[in-house]
Each structure stands twice: as structure tokens, then as C-alpha cells.
Amino acid sequence: MLHEPEPHRRNDIVIARLLACTALSLAIATPGFAAPDAAPIDLAAAQARAKATVGQMQAEEKVVITHGIMPLPGGGPKVDIPKDAIIGAGYVAGIPRLGIPALRETDASLGVSWVGGARGDWSTALPSAVAQAASWNPALVQRGGAMIGAEARAKGFNVLLAGGVNLARDPRNGRTFEYFSEDPLLSGVLAGAAIRGVQSNHIISTIKHFALNGQETARKYVNVQISRAAAHESDLLAFQLGIEQGQPGSVMCAYNRIEGQQACASDWLLNTVLKQQWGYKGFVMSDWGAVPSIDAAISGLDHQSGEQLDPGVFFGSKLAEKAAGDAVWRTRLDDMNTRVLTAIYAAGVDKNPTQPGAPIDWDAHAAIAEDTAKQGIVLLKNDGGVLPLNTAVKSIAVIGGYADGGVLSGAGSSQVMGKGGPAVKLPVAGSGIWATFISEAYHRSSPMGAMKAQAPQATVLYRQGQYIKDAAELAARSEVAVVFATQWMTEGLDVPDLSLPRGQDALIEAVAAANPNTIVVLETGGPVKMPWLGKVKAVVEAWYPGARGGEAIASVLFGQTNPSGRLPVSFPADESQLPRPRLDGSDWVEPDFGGNPKNGKDQLAADYNIEGSDLGYRWFARSGAKPLFPFGYGLSYTTFAHARPVMKGMTARVAVRNTGQRAGAEVVQLYLVSRAGEAKRRLVGFGRVELAPGASGTVAMTIDPRLLADWKEGSWIMPGGDYVLATGRDAETLDTPITVPLKARSWKD
Ligand code: BGC
Asked: Within 6 Å (CB) of ligand 1, which residues are found?
């Protein structure tokens, strides 16, 4: 919608779209809920209308849609909340004289956010974004976005703060659960899909947080150091693909600094890259409390959000004063208004007002959450085929993770909660503001309840596991022991390491020693270490599985669902394998939920030049270290045979056959293995295919040339020579490669 490709780039964009469609056309449909089709967007018309409206604006009207408040009682410094605002993340006044609607903003990465219950309502919680990404299924993610958009409309929200596409540069990042993956292609395609889904409801979606917002430690001031080339080949590429494929109305800039400058005041990021190189036509909104000064407008920021959290309200009367006395500011102000209005008109926000109170089809929405959880669960280990469990099993010990009550969720602005609030709620601290606001909350979807429903005749008993000996004794008396292990993550705080907290490793060891059929179900924000891996029979990564996570987990354990998730992030054996074995700043920054610099310690740097664009599996390929589980890894209850890729132009076709006894889905992954004699490891295509036993299918993947190229001084460059490509069961387990000779070429964004 808001990105008009330059003519010479159209090919790349078509290619990228095709790529998304590949997976889309092969995906199964979810019964009961159809995502509305995204209406065709006429960008030129939206922009022309926006310019005409700006032409009719009086001077004071030009500083209305350029800023907004956070309408949340108790959510920071006091602010007057207008009557037509809805409690949520943001409110921007409209201009009725010109038919410009007020903007009502909510966080919405994983569902319409809960804001601590302040609105007294509830929403459908999708699994975490990393869980969604584990499906490698853009069509599914798009349906999820459409579902969130539908709920938002029925609550009166018309701007969704969604589309978190930051790459998982460090698995300790407290927001790992809110982001998709460590790979720019997978993340960009999925963010684009989520945004398309949201915006199919005549709602504006953001893509966020632009850019390189890779850690929560000191998030408001950490200075990210990375070469421009590496940035373009990694984090920026994820944004670029997400913007091309999702056409979000808005880009939310990030808290961190880059090249010493706050991201929301970075002329390079906002003006040069986003608006000039990529031709983005929508508006840049700030993250909440991320605007250092009024000059951010000249650096490309179009809208100040949650303004009471900034050092001042810059984009109101102060901006009007600047514009009154200076033609440069006047032109900029017109452009800011044009961009906000282009987003409003392109999404049709003004012509399709939201319908607060409209009925919500909760059952259909819950089915989407459940389907997403099922497709995102990753089977990591299954020795001796211990899974799926037989429904005739006589006794099961369920241990830990509050599995009798519900499933874990991630916290922060993206926190969603269903009807009745949390089943279990543990404060992160016993005192102070965070004791009230941030807690480890479990959705009301009990895995144990769902397991009982699958095996009604079995004796299923529960221990939380605080008393390890007692839990091990129950395990010893049971045919099977299922341990639920959790790692809670929240926005604002990174985890100090990748261990399972609260002594859960010892609990698993003891249970595994007591029962030879021990299965571990992980509910984690991202990767964790597994010192007990060799002692358990099976490991299932369920992430934060959302509103119907319990049912989805039970369905996988008992084999109604054949697991098909693949890891969208590498699981390191331990932190020493990471580019930064110790998280920058974690040794001296207070755990302050990413607050402002304290005690003069505002010069913290995060050196992303160590890995550059080789993050995640590319770092493992470069360093030679063996991860615990590689990117792309995941087992199934069936087996698949792959034919070698057949190339036609830039499209690879891979035939796949289900060689086992059960229906299942395979995710075909295509990697660049070497280029002109130089070793590389880059995901260049993927597609998910559902196959009945014995059935074959073909996955077609069109390769975006940017994935084969390097970025150098403003151009993408592909050296001439042999390009070796291979499908991989994961990023480390490659099938027989093929060699494709390609000519040298270079082009500009
Ligand atoms: C987060 C954003 C969020 C905003 C509004 C910020 O703290 O970084 O992701 O959209 O708050 O709630």
C-alpha cells in the first residue's frame, strides 16, 4: 500500500510475492474462519487525496495528527484522556471538519493487548510470534493477523501496533517471543503476511521496531554498532521484505541508538534508507518515549506517539511555531500530514469506521489460535517412537509448568489475555510498580485437562515440582512422565542466560532417573539449554502456545496432530557459542525495564559487527560450532523424501514424498551453500506442503536475488560464478547440492 516500487525493482518484488504465494497456495485452510481478502490498494489515489486534504488544512490543523497520547490511566505521567479515546496504547485526535477520523491504537502483535485488564475486556491470544514462525506458513500467519484485526475493529481500534520483525540476534533478548526468527527472509515474509491480515480489516498496521532493536538491556540508549552493509543484508532486509509484502501504513521506529543517534531521529534510517532508497510513502511513528527532540521531524519522524512519555510534546504547538517561521519546517510538516493521511486513506480507515461492540466469533478465533499452535509446535527428540502416546496408556504423571492450570504467555505491551484473566499469575517482583504491572501469566488452557480428554481412562496426576523427590516418586509410579518446563520472558528485561529457571533442570533430571519414559514439553520464549537431553525420551517445544495451547500440546502428544514445526531460531548448546557470550551491558545495567540512562551510564554499545549479517545459523556455519538444535530443525511422526531441486530461471522446484504411514507436513528449505567458491549459508526459499501417506507434492520457490547478493555502498552485488544450492532438513543437514552458474550483476534498491 505504502511503498511504490521503483520500476527497476518491480521484478524483485514480484519474485518476493511469488515466494510468499508458494507457501500460501499449498497451505491447508482453517475451517470456520476466512481471512477477508485485502482490498486492492490504490496508493497514488490515496496520496493524491492526502495532498488535497493537506491543502485544505489551516495552520493549527496541521499539528493534530502529528502527535498523540497514551490513553492509559496510570500508564506514566498524567494526561487528560479525551472522551472518545479507548484505553490502550495510543490516541490521536481526528479533524471532523475534514472527515479525518481519530486514531485509536492498540498493541496487537499476538492479539489485541490486555493492558493489565484496564479495559475490562479480553481477546484471543495467538501463540507467540516465534511459535507462529515455526509453522513457516505465511497463509496461517495472515489468517492470524486478520483475526486480530477483526477483534480490534470490534473493540474500536483502527491502528494496530503489530508486525514486530526485529531479528533474533541474541536469544536472550526478552522480546524473542514477540519476533519471528533469526532469518531475514522468513521474518520478512511472515511479517508481511501478518500485516496483510491485519490491514484486510481497513485498519492500519505498523511494522516495528525500525531498526536493530536487538536487546532490552538498556534498550532506550544502547548504541548499536554495525556496518551499513551488514545492516542491509540482515535486519534491514527483514524490514524491506516485510514492507514490500505487507504494505504497512506505518513504520514504528525503535528505542535504541544507531551510529550514536536515536533510531527515531536517525536521518540515515528514516530519510535515506526508508523513504529515499525504499520509496516508503506511509508514516513513521515513534515508539513510546523514543523521541529525543523536535529535530527528529527533520530526520524523518512523522508522528510522535505516547507523547507524555517523551521529554516534551514536540510535534504539537512547538512544531506549528517552527513551521510558521521557516519554509523548510513548513514543507516537512505538510509531508508529515500527507504521510499520515496516505496511510488512513490507503487502508480506508475513514470510509470504513470501526464497529465497537460488533459480535466476535470467539470459537472461530480460538480455532485459529489452536491451529497456529499445532503448526508451530516443534518435536525436537523422539527416541524409540515414545510419541505419539497411546490413548490406552494407564497412568501419566504430569509435572511442572502449572500444566494443570494453563499455558505460559510472554509479558509486556504485547500481553494478551482471554476471558476470565490468567489461570495463574506470578508477579515478577514483590514490590514497586512492576509487582502490579508485569507478571508471569498463564492462559486458561490446561494441557493436563486436554491430556485427560485424550486418554479418559488413564490416571493422570499432577505435581508442580517444588518438591523434587515427591515429583520423582509420582513419575516412578506412572507409565509415562510428562514434565512441563517454562522460561518466562518479558519486554523490558533480557534473560541473563539460557537456562531453565527455578531449578527445573534438576527436576527433569530426577524425573528422568525415576521414569524411563520421560517426555519434556517446553513452554519457552526462545532457545534454552538442555543439560538433561540425553536422559529423556522426547522433547516437544511448544513455545508460548496461546489461547488453546493446552489442546494443541495434547493433540501433538497423542498424535492427532503430526508435528510439523521447524525451529525459526538456532538453539545453542550454551552461551559460549554466541557472538557475545555475555550480553552487552548485563553486567552493569540495572534491570530497569529498559529505562532511561542512569548514573551517567549512557554510553553502552552493542557491537553487532562481531557477527555482522551472519547471525543465527549463519554464525554457526561461520564459527563451525555445533548448536544443540539447528535452525530449521524439527521431527515428524512420518518421513519425507526430497528430490533434488530443479531450477528454471530463478525458480527452484522440489518434489517431496511422504514415505511414512501418517499424513504430515514438510517444510522444504532451500539454502545457498557456496557462491563463486566461497562458503555461504543463507536461506533463499521455503515452502510448506501437506501430504497424505505415500503422496507427493512439489514446492516451488522463487529466489529473491537480494538473498544471493552482498550490499556494498548503496548497491546489491552478485559476483559471477557457481552458486551451489541445497535443500536442507535444517540449516546443517543438507541434501545433495546442485550448482547453478550465474552471471555477475549489480543493482540499487
Ligand atoms: C513498545 C512497543 C509498543 C509501545 C506501545 C513500547 O514500549 O516497545 O512495541 O507498541 O510500547 O505500547
From this structure: 89, 107, 161, 208, 287-288, 413
